[in-house]
Amino acid sequence: MSASLCLSPALEKTKGRYNSGLMRILFITATRLGDAVLSTGLLAHLIRTIPDARFTIACGPVAAGLFENLPGLDAILVMDKRKYDLHWLDLWKACVGQKWDLTIDLRGSATTLFLRSRKRLIMRGGRRPGLRLTHLAKLLNLTPPPLPTVWLSKADHAIAATTLPAQGPLIALGPTANWTGKIWPTERYLPLWKALSAAIPNARPVIFYGPGPQEQALAAPVLNALPNAVDAGGHFSLPQVAAMLARCRLYIGNDSGLMHLAAAAGTPTLGLFGPSRASEYAPSGKQTAWVVAPGPEGEAPIAGLSVATVAQAAARLLAETHS
């Protein structure tokens, strides 16, 4: 344990506790997968600066698997939404018996005010302009914002190796999203694939989608239309999905949790945006790009995004990342 570790200014008051031993941190993050992925950069920063910290993560059920390999994990508290916001009472009951060194609430609730905590960091709720990643980083006074990450096990990598073919570059496609306005028309993936495979003749498409019949129905036309498509959706854990994404040469998909997961896994990621705002939720990673449908931000129909525009952006990203 090194006394020379540089903590962010927001953590200076807890440095004495760190230098003397174990620190217990409660981290309340998002219900939606995409927002939860974006918050992983803060956790990675805490792990680097306070390597002996122990973490309790509170999140929604969709995002829970994201944290199962987190270093220093004590518990994942899954918050199932209840009437009258009673899920917050459930969380308080689960946490009130512990004395916390640091509580971080990215949901803007009052829960941590009623817990014993040496320091509290509460992010203001509501929407505001600018990248969500930047707003998260401001909570710890971090500039530049730490990039999202994923924590994978040997077993996750093994599943990815056995699920995906070893031959040919793999191009990941994410044709689903949590609402229809963000979904690029599925019939455009066939002409897009023809353009991609002309440039990379031996490439294989890998189709990613989430669990449940709705996601499966959205992905089915793309799976059926593309030759040699690999089905990588529906029943894998989030770390397994991330490990598969990490093996792909490129990811192309709608603004979704999968898009953010691909960027966090280090896959060159091209996000497709229509009525959602790239200025707030553009993919954040070492190798990312995005294209936006023509029209006013937040109102542009994603159907206005042409195959040619997407194919050209994909070709540029491939050239930049595999020169």
UniProtKB/TrEMBL annotation:
Ranges in a coiled coil: none
Top-level taxonomic group: Bacteria
EC number(s) on file: 2.4.1.-
Pfam family, one: Glyco_transf_9
One function term, GO molecular function aspect: ADP-heptose-lipopolysaccharide heptosyltransferase activity
Gene Ontology terms: cellular component: cytosol
Keywords attached to this entry: Glycosyltransferase, Transferase
InterPro entries: Glyco_trans_9 (IPR002201), LPS_LOS_Heptosyltrfase (IPR051199)
Group of enzyme by EC: transferase
GO biological process, one term: lipopolysaccharide core region biosynthetic process
SUPFAM superfamilies: UDP-Glycosyltransferase/glycogen phosphorylase
Protein name per Swiss-Prot or TrEMBL: ADP-heptose--lipooligosaccharide heptosyltransferase II
Organism taxonomic ancestry: Bacteria, Pseudomonadati, Pseudomonadota, Alphaproteobacteria, Acetobacterales
